[in-house]
Amino acid sequence: MLDQKVIKDYKALIFKIAQEEYGIDITQVVSIERMQAITSYPNRPAHVLGVTTIREIVTPVIDLRSALTGLSFNNTDDTRMIIVQVKDKEIGLIVDDATDVTDISLDTIQYPKLFEAKNVSYLNGISKLDDRVIILLDIEKLLEDITNLDELKDLKNKLD
Question: Tell me, what CATH number does 135's domain have?
Answer without folding.
Answer: 2.40.50.180
